[in-house]
Amino acid sequence: MAQTKPPKLTDLPRPPSPFAPPSSSRRRPKPPLKPSPPAHPPAPLQTREALDVGGVPFSLQRLGTETFVTVSVGKAFHVYNCAKLTLVLAGPQLPKKIRALASFKEYTFAAYGSDIAVFKRTDLVVTFTKHEEKVNMLYLFGEYILSADIKGDLFIWAFRGAKPSIGCADGSIHVHNIRYDEELMSFNHEIRGDVTALSFRTDGQPLLASGGSSGVISIWNLEKRRLHSVIREAHDGSIVSLHFFANEPILMSSAADNSIKMWIFDNNEGDARLLRFRSGHSAPPRCIRFYGNGKFILSAGQDRAFRLLHTGTPVIISCTFLSSQSAIEDQQSRELSQRHVAKRAKKLRVKEEEIKLKPVIAFDCAEIRARDWCNVVTCHTDTSKAYVWRLQNFVIGEHILTPSSETESLIKACTISACGNFTILGTEGGWIEKFNLQSGISRGSYIDGSLSLQCAHEGEVVGLACDATNGSLISAGYRGDIKVWDFKSCKLKSKFNVGKSVTKIAYHRANGLLATVADDMVLVLFDTVSMKMVRRFEGHTDRITDLCFSEDGKWLISSSMDGTLRIWDISLARQIDAMRVDVSITSVSMSPNMDVLATTHVDQNGVYLWVNQALFSPSTNVDSYASGKHVRNVLLPTVSSAERSEEEEPIKKSQDSNQSNIKPFVIMDHQIPDMITLSLLPRSQWQSLTNLDIIKVRNKPIEPPKKPEQAPFFLPSVPSLSGEILFEPPSSKETDGSTTEDIGHKKMADLSSHFSRLLQSCGELESYSAFTDYLKGLSPSSLDMELRMLQIIDDDEVEESEEPRPELHSISLLLDYFIHELSCRNNFEFVQAVLKLFLKVCDSIFHLKPIELVLKVYFIFLGTRYMVKQYGATRRYRRKSRFLKSMHTWESMWLLYHSAVPHRLVVVMYQHCSARNIWECRKCQLGETSPSVYPAFYFSDSPPCSSSVF
After folding, report:
1. Under a CB-based contact definition with an 8 Å cutoff, are residues 443 and 424 in contact?
2. Contact at 8 Å (CB) between 485 and 492?
3. Any residues with CB less than 8 A from the CB of 653 and at least 6 apart, and which?
4. How many Cα neighbours within 13 Å face the side chain of 837?
5. E-assigned strand segments in 439-573
6. C-beta neighbour count of 923 within 10 angstroms
């Protein structure tokens, strides 16, 4: 190893930002690896969290009264508080995997490849690039940091009294005095494997802890020069780091099994016991699924562990969607118990992993009966039995489900019914059997009589699904046959063949769509009711590993070994987004709230979470990602901490600039010509508008209103509308007569309500969406009050006054609003209800003979009549006439007719007119088909009969 003077920690630059210029003796800092810039702004998915713990030796440092440990998680590092092992800080992604770690105060040193990155909290300060080979060791020596690469000698140093200990690969331990260069003692660790970690106890006890490749921790007594105690089966993998807390009887250990454990020496014999620990999958998970309304994730790994992970709570900081995981949430993540595994392993003197069940290959869960009995069923590798789990107690169930087939067959698929009472198992031999979850008893088998073996499928059953009403069971065979069974009678209802070998299926209970994956890497969607193919998606170039539906059934998400994650819009029948990661995805799951997507990856022990940005952003750039042609390169997520500083400010500015370039998605009024659109309001809301009189009579109080209490004689009171006692304010008896006269003649325009002002502003813009939303937000009684405010009480003054009344102007604007909504066919049932209420309330206004208002009323009548005739020409006339009658359309037409006819107004319009819409006049018969020309009107003393109108 080269004898060069390493830099001091006190000499490290302390710039306000990580982009400060480096010193002359160091190269420019290397920023973390970033994905290739996309051709469009950020797509609707962003990273949020990864649940993982690395296997590189950790580093401890003490700040004040707290002790913190820094661990590696692949290409990033995490900092935990040792008090309860809670996450407090997470570092950024590095270009390569971390090989060594060291920490000093707020600085963290991470070795990746041949470089060493120095971080102050999470900001990159400088990068050392002196090594030519990969760095394998980092060690702090006072104010210096020692590093060693694979070219030099590898030692693990732990100083106390200038006496380091040296562990060798042959299992021997040597305690050496550096000052006098002499060996003090040696121990033999050969039977426990290679020595991989050492640590001295510093609280006055002469003990040395050593860890080996077998996962055993040995405690040596330096005074007696012999073995003190042994912690057997401390870890399931090779121990990579040991550290005694300063002046405390606590030992921390980490190993390749993805766990951190704290041991305390508090008994009389000086032996250690487990104090607390944090662990994850020691092998990559292969199946994941959200549970508990998206708060938890069920994860089954290749390490034979079945875990329940807490996803944390999303926190929005600087428009970047991160996550916060508190101590309580982190402690809720745990491995489900397989009943006394440690006790049985100790009794049989084998590892716990050998006692556990084989890795899970498929599972299903249901939350509806979680408090009553087991609600999870799992299928395991090369196992002919299925196991049930009770998540309420985090333990395996008491029943073992064994299919009663003639020949023993391995279980390959499982599902739980919508009611949570039954589970259905599918085997490799093609048998399908139903079990009761409460008792574990078989409740029948599904048999296809046309098959010679009297089973359900010829070949392996690759997937099972049950509909939302327990009416049907859908099964898929490896040879491409899809069958629909009667759930209760176990009889075959229908079947069809895909034509290719099916490897995986996904079913959405709400819409009845079944997605299948074949060997040709094509996603095919079938409607299980009509038994027809409805969608076909192509795009993956390698084997499809998993797929899932969104909760609303609009998206289909698929992953492939080509490293891509693709999102397909089922209604649009196209891909809307695609991204590629550097590690292939093996399993995906979308949360019920559609805010988080969970993924697992090849050779990755963590479960990675992605946030659906489309749910949080105020606007999304539909032009950029809706085409789905561009595949974005992204990095894997990292865990984000709850404590964030000013480091998000640059992110906020960059995202604000991106948001400024995003075009808002505008919905046009006429998306489909001649199509009526409803308001989607509750039926009770718009029906109450036409039945206000009945509601008022029903809600009329039985007892007469009580007289308000009299105030004391020395406090003068005034009457109030609400019945409350109001005191007369002091006022001067002498008032100016001119002032009173001005107040009496004050114009109504100055006292206009928000209803009138909003109606006028929307009329000027010719866009009534804001006014419609305002009407929808009003209660029926409030809307009735607003319409009654338009009534004219003093009819005589209207004829005598030369100036137009503000009420007539507001009524004219309101009629324009009705004409616009009827022409656009928007909010049909709500507009009809409001129109009927308006005609009832303001019927007396039309007797004042304002010709402009009468013409507009007649236009509304023609528009409603045209839609009724258009619906009547269809085949389903009766059904649609009932639909229109339920929306008070006939009553509105009758009121419209009687509002216009008393004024002897007759429209010249032939019944055989071939005009395309009612706004074209009769001159279309002469070739003049301009829609801008209004119908011709004249006055007659004999109004037409009602039969000619309807």
Report:
1. no
2. yes
3. none
4. 27
5. 442-446, 461-466, 472-477, 481-486, 492-497, 502-508, 513-518, 523-527, 532-537, 544-549, 555-560, 564-569
6. 16
**pLDDT interval class at 924 (50, 70, 90):** very low
Tell me the CATH number of domain 1-30+53-154, given options 2.30.130.10, 3.40.50.300, 3.40.50.620, 2.130.10.10: 2.130.10.10
CB 538 within 8 A of CB 578: no
The 10s digit of each residue's pLDDT in 841-859 is 776 666 555 667 777 777 7
Q: Which of 142, 392, 346, 102 is nearest to 243 (CA)?
A: 102
Q: Is residue 582 within 8 Å of 563, Cβ to Cβ? A: yes
> Tokens at residue 872, please?
């009547």
Provide the 10 A C-beta neighbour count for residue 175: 19
Q: Whose CA is closest to 72, among 49, 85, 84, 90? A: 90
| Torsion sign (Cα): 556, 559, 564, 565 | positive
Cα atoms found within 13 Å of the Cα of residue 304, Cβ hemisphere only:
13
pLDDT at position 412 is 95
Q: To 5 degrees, how large is the angle CA 284–CA 287–CA 290? A: 120
**pLDDT tens-digit map of 299-311:** 999 999 999 988 8
The secondary element (H helix, E strand) that includes residue 835 is helix 828-841
Count of CB atoms situated within 10 Å of the CB of 315? 15
CA separation for the pair 823, 313 (Å, rounded) = 47
Do the beta carbons of residue 97 and residue 86 sit within 8 Å? no
Distances (CA, A) of 422 to 372, 426, 435, 442, 506: 13, 14, 6, 9, 19
Q: How far is it, in rounded angstroms, from Cα 474 to Cα 483?
A: 6
Contact yes or no for 376/388 (Cβ under 8 A) = yes
C-alpha to C-alpha distance for 558 and 548, rounded to whole angstroms: 7
Specify the pLDDT at position 298.
94
The answer to whether 94 and 75 are in contact (CB under 8 A) is: yes
* CATH fold match for the domains 1-30+53-154 and 157-279: yes
Give the three-state DSSP class for 704.
coil
Question: Could you tell me the CA-to-CA distances from 223 to 202, 206, 207, 407, 750 in Å, in that order?
Answer: 14, 6, 8, 65, 98
Task: Please report which helix (H) or strand (E) contains residue 618, including its range.
Answer: none
Q: Report d(CA 421, CA 368) in Å as an integer.
A: 9
Query: Residue 414 and residue 366: Cα distance in Å, rounded?
Result: 12
Q: What is the CATH number of domain 157-279?
A: 2.130.10.10
Burial letters 841-859, b for 16+ CB under 10 A, else e: bbeebbeeebeebbbbbbb
What is the token pair recorded at 42? Answer: 């950020």
- Identity of the amino acid at 279: S
Distance CA(511)–CA(509), nearest Å, equals: 6
Smallest Cα–Cα separation from 445: which of 401, 409, 405? 405
Bridge partners, 77 (sequence order): 72
pLDDT at position 4 over 60: no
Going from N- to C-terminal start, the domains of the chain cover: 1-30+53-154, 157-279, 683-696+754-787+806-903
Residue of 777, 780, 776, 766 whose CA lies nearest to 813? 766
Distance in angstroms (rounded) separating the CA atoms of residues 508 and 456: 22
- Answer positive or negative: Cα dihedral of 610, 614, 617, 621: positive
Contact 519/503 with Cβ under 8 angstroms?
A: yes
CB 375 within 8 A of CB 437: yes
Q: In this predicted model, what pLDDT tens digit does every residue of 200-247 receive, in sequence order?
A: 888 888 899 988 888 889 998 888 888 888 888 888 888 888 989 988
- Tokens representing residue 653 in the block: 């500015």
